[in-house]
Amino acid sequence: MTCNADPVVETPAGAVRGVRDDSGEFYRAIPYAAATIGARRFAAPEPHPGWPGVRDGTRPSPTAPQPARDFGKLDMTPYFGPGWIRGEEYLTVDVRTPAADGGRRPVLVFVHGGGFVTGSTRAALYDGRAFARDGIVLVTVNYRLGIPGFLDLDGAPANRGLLDVLAALGWVHDTIAAFGGDPDNVTICGQSAGATLVGTLLATPEAGGLFRRAIMQSGSGTGAFTPEQARRVTTAAAAALGAEPTAEAFAAIPDERFVAVLPALTGLDLRTSTATDPLAGLSPFSVVRAVQPADALADGPARDVDLLIGTNTEEGHLYLVPQGTLETTTEADVRALAAQVHPHPEAALAALPEATPGELRSALLGQALFGTGTQRLAQAHARLSGGRTHVYSFGYRSTALNGRLGAAHTVELPFVFDIADEPWLHGDTGLLGPDAVPDGLAARVHGAWVSFARTGDPGWAAYDPRRPVAEALGTLR
Asked: Domain 8-473 classified CATH 3.40.30.10?
């Protein structure tokens, strides 16, 4: 590294210039794979050819093609970021490090959420300064989304977005020492769709040796589409685009059309004789597997990986409160959702507590999207790994939208990144609402993530599937 005001790091692909601030050093838009353009959008990621001279790592990356997302009255721009920022080279990582000094610090690789169709490293919520402050090297990852990332096509490898994350982990293994990180102490962390990708990697043989620990925030170990479900999406996409369902045919279609056709694919009936819709019609994409990750952990590195996993207590509120449908939900809506997401809908309804139709609908959504798949994966991992599983339940209730948002999906993120006091997260339409958060809560949550990345221990007892108790986060002890 040079002694200039702006730090420069030498990587195997070339030199990268970053910026230095009070928390350490920040390097942006570093390619971990070659640009995916034309037919290569439907191929496995390839190594980047490198570059001459010093690459500018002070500016943010382009993002994967993606649609704009609207969550009604709630401002979700800190989560989704700026949307589609065009540019060919978006398979990139951002690295926030205390110093690129040859130190061997714990590494946290973060995989964003967004329903497999949106999101990027540019989202404001993924500010890594607190991790660098506390001695952790944070790496955030862009990956292919939507049709290029996850549509099953003849002539193309499946789960290309997952292959991107796998390639990024390979880049970390080979390169992170130059940024002051320890390639032998890597934690992969994902939220929502990103957490489902992490769960899939736990059951992926090729991921062996690339990470030592894993964190799943509001994901699912049972969120994969079956091949039959994936074919339904492919058939619908091909019909909407007027093309044969092959990689060769789709290679000639511009990204703009892929983004434009997404509304026609959302809400497809994906129920089959053997499977319900694991995403409740909210997204037409997921990883595609014949066996759910929670049932295939022995096939991957899971037994040798520490796992921190959990959900929020009111996950489903994000999909009802901002849209104004929590109050307008009817009993018929609840029954329709139960039939969509549960193999035994009447039994699912009978197990719910007394509540309003809106609250029941939220509970069903939370369980279907995140709760059931999290529980199954936690239990499977605990039995396989023997004392290496830690489970949490996050219950802090955001006061956004007149106090109704509650402990909804995504609300834990500002606490994990220790930025819950940022003004742009507050106000009635901000993710955390107008009220100040409890003193010490962000320090506790963020501290648990830091401790886990360092040692595999977040600060509470390991999960016992015979007495399944989750650590309650969201209130101070």
From this structure: no
